[in-house]
Amino acid sequence: MHPGTGGEAEHERQAQVTAHSRPSLRAVLACALFIGLTIFTLGRAHAAPHASMVVDARSGEILYARNHDTRLHPASLTKMMTLYVVFQAIEHGEITLDTMVTISRNAAAEPPSKLGLRSGQRIALRYLIRAAAVRSANDAATALGEAISGSEEAFTTRMTQTARAMGMSNTTFRNAHGLTTSGHLSTARDMTTLGRQLLFDYPQYYNLFSRRSADAGMAQVPNTNRRFLDAYRGADGIKTGYTSAAGFNMVGSAERNGVRIITTVFGGASTAARNAQVAELMDMGFSRAPARAATRPPATPSYSAPSAGVAMAQAGSDNQGAGRTIRLQTAVARSPRPMGRPTAEPAPEMLMALQSGISDALSVVADAATVEVVPVDTELAALAPEVLGIVPVARPDLEAAEVAQIQDGAQVQVAAVAAGAAEPTAVAEAAPQAVRATPAAAAADLDLARAAGFRVANPADVAALNAVQESPAAAAPDSPALNDQIILTSSAPVALSVAPPPRPAYVQAVAAADQAPTATQVVARMSTSDARLWGVHLGGHPNRHEAERTLIQTSLSESAALEGGIRRIQQRAGKFDAEFAGLTQDQADLACRRIQARNRTCITIAP
């Protein structure tokens, strides 16, 4: 055999084999096409059921509904309730935005979409909130639930209880993220109710749902709803969701000219188809909603304090209970007392000094004040240096009421002295008086004293007085007539004169400074920088409702900077100006810096 012949025969054999094999390839292609068509047909036959609802967010009026009470898989719309419960926990003091949460193995193992959290990692609660709201991260949602309630199971129980309190009677939660789980179901009506509740109950957090991206601590995460937010005018939220069992879901919200519409769609065929359907329903809602409608906020669901298993982040555990810690405080026990309005009162330091000075004055007068008994008779007043400049004493025969009257008169004068009187003052008293005097002093002008109504209280003292008058030199040096005091009494009206007590040191210093000659007169006034006379202006609004909402949102988001501030709405030139008054200058400056950092209007109002 020649080589060329053999080669041709081999070539012919290979050609025959190839020709016989072609029908097999066609069969394979046909089979593959059939299988693909079968899968597509089955997929269409088992597509997620469709449901939708449109409401006027202001009044809650239903503008359109279809299958809105059919229980379906909510997918990541679940995270709206996860975030609502987290906001509720923050509001009631269970946890804070800055709480560091330790990620458990359970949270880290959640399937995508996820932030990429690692077991044992510590991250601030605020970043988990952003990741769950903007990126729809499943691991972040589970970590939030464990941080609030200690376990995902306990947290989902609380989610369902909160749903019942809102009136979401057809919703049951089994996880915090929304992945398909047996019994984890909701309806278009219930999710619309939840979206409206988020809008009204936590407006300070609502802006999360309109952010195109957010800083989640580990990375800058994009919004899963950014296509609809960019494409539909006035859209500002709320949440999307997808699983194969649920289809493409969305609760969307948009506002135009003061009218807000909330639309819910379950079971979209794709992201584009769902967005188009939501836009169509939104347009229908805006066309049907009245231009003006009364705003009727939904009732805030009752808050029930969680059980003792309320959790915070805690490191050092690698089981499902990681991040569990018992909190003793579950709600704010006492709200701060509102601060007083600005007044022209002296500084607190000055008031304290005055109170201290008054106390000192009362103490000095009570213990050692000199009270002079001066009769009204002008002639007898000449005896004051020798006879009457003496501390009065109570007579045994004085009635208690008379003694109280004398003491009351002294107290009046004490108050006058404490209030700043520089000289003694006198008040006439009609009660009987008693004074002590030495026999020598009394005997000098005893006749004049008797003429004024004074008499010797003890008859035994009369002889001593007479002996002194007749022969002072003859009296014995140790005679009681010369050394003992005798008591003179009078029922005539007298005047009580109270000598002012020593002034406190700070008063003496001020008096000395006032008397010192000065070349320049210095006029001082209290600084207004620390007085609560400042305020902030948050811009004008078309109606009072918008102004009130701005004030509430700002008050909640900047509660520290605006502490003690007074909300007020001023109507000027057809606009409603939202303002905070009653702030210090530092408070007003800080509040405006923080508000302006959020790209919002804020102007400081000076006194």
Set down the secondary structure blueprint.
Blueprint: H1 3-45, E1 51-56, E2 62-66, H2 78-91, E3 100-102, H3 105-108, E4 122-124, H4 125-135, H5 138-149, H6 152-166, H7 188-201, H8 203-206, E5 213-215, E6 220-222, H9 226-231, E7 235-243, E8 247-256, E9 259-268, H10 271-288, H11 348-368, E10 371-375, H12 384-388, H13 400-418, E11 425-429, E12 433-437, H14 439-444, H15 446-451, E13 454-456, H16 460-470, H17 480-483, E14 486-490, E15 494-498, H18 505-515, E16 534-541, H19 544-557, E17 566-572, E18 575-583, H20 585-596, E19 603-605
Antiparallel strand pairs: 1-2, 1-9, 3-4, 5-6, 7-8, 8-9, 10-15, 11-15, 12-14, 13-14, 16-18, 16-19, 17-18
Keywords: Carboxypeptidase, Cell shape, Cell wall biogenesis/degradation, Hydrolase, Peptidoglycan synthesis, Protease, Signal
Family: Belongs to the peptidase S11 family.
Organism: Roseicitreum antarcticum
Description:
- Substrate binds at residue 239.
- GO terms for molecular function: serine-type D-Ala-D-Ala carboxypeptidase activity.
- Belongs to the peptidase S11 family.
- Residues 49-268 form the Peptidase S11 D-alanyl-D-alanine carboxypeptidase A N-terminal domain.
- The active site is at 76 (acyl-ester intermediate), 79 (proton acceptor), 136.
- With 607 residues, the protein is an alpha+beta fold.
- The protein folds into three domains: 51-288, DD-peptidase/beta-lactamase superfamily (Beta-lactamase, 3-Layer(aba) Sandwich); 348-498, no CATH class; 534-605, Alpha-Beta Plaits (2-Layer Sandwich).
- 41% of the residues lie in helices and 18% in strands.
- The protein contains 20 helices and 19 strands.
- The strands form six sheets. The chain has a five-stranded antiparallel β-sheet with strand order 2-1-9-8-7, sandwiched between helices. A four-stranded antiparallel β-sheet has the order 17-18-16-19, covered by helices on one side.
- A hairpin with a 5-residue loop joins strand 1 and strand 2.
- The longest helix is centred in the N-terminal third of the chain and has 43 residues, at 3-45.
- The chain is elongated.
